[in-house]
Amino acid sequence: MKNKLVFELYCLETEHLNIVITVSIDSKIIIYGCEHGSIIKEITGDFDYEYYLEINKINTIKFKLLKRLTSFNDLKEFFIKKFSGEDGVQKVKKFCSRNFIKYEFNVWR
Predict the structure, then answer these.
(1) How many other C-beta atoms are found inside a 10 Å radius of the C-beta of residue 83?
(2) What's the pTM?
(3) Which helix (H) or strand (E) covers residue 88, if one does?
(4) Is the dihedral of CA 59, 61, 62, 63 positive or negative?
(5) Is the CA virtual torsion 11, 82, 33, 23 positive or negative?
(6) Comparing C-alpha atoms, which of 104, 94, 70, 90 is closest to residue 21?
(7) Residue 25: Cβ-neighbour burial (10 angstroms; 0-12, 13-18, 19+)
(8) Residues near 47 by Cβ (< 8 Å), separated by ≥ 6?
(9) Interior/surface letters 41-76, b for 16+ CB within 10 angstroms, e for the rest
(10) What order do you get walking across the sheet with 5-13 strand by strand?
(11) Residue 104 CB: number of other CB atoms within 10 A?
């Protein structure tokens, strides 16, 4: 894969909550999420909550081989079909765990 592919996996905008989850794919997969608004402030005590899930190069290859995804578009379509929605990151975690695909999950507060 020579080019970087970035696309939005989920977006929600309300008066009290904004959530944006994007996916970046090159030699590895990075899912980045940012949530902010008054609801997040009530829950965390901070105005925003940012997190990312990273699947390294070797495990990205494993991921693609497992599902026989050979192109950016195949991978994008798979992510949108299987992992769209507010709980998409949790779905990715479960998928990876069930298929022995290692990932890192980090939160910025």
Answers:
(1) 21
(2) 0.85
(3) helix 88-98
(4) positive
(5) negative
(6) 90
(7) buried
(8) 36, 37, 40, 41
(9) eeeeeeeebebbbbbbeebbebbbeeeebeebeebb
(10) 5-13, 18-25, 29-36, 48-55, 104-108
(11) 11
**49 is written with which tokens?**
């909550």
Dihedral sign from CA coordinates of 93, 97, 99, 100: positive
Q: Which of 52, 47, 45 is nearest to 37 (CA)?
A: 47
Alpha-carbon distance of 17 to 36, in angstroms, equals 6
pLDDT in single tens digits along all 109 residues of the chain: 456 789 999 999 998 889 999 999 989 999 999 999 998 888 888 888 899 999 999 999 999 999 999 988 999 999 999 999 989 999 999 999 999 999 999 998 6
Token pair recorded at residue 71: 């192109």
Q: Which amino acid is residue 98, in one-letter code?
A: R
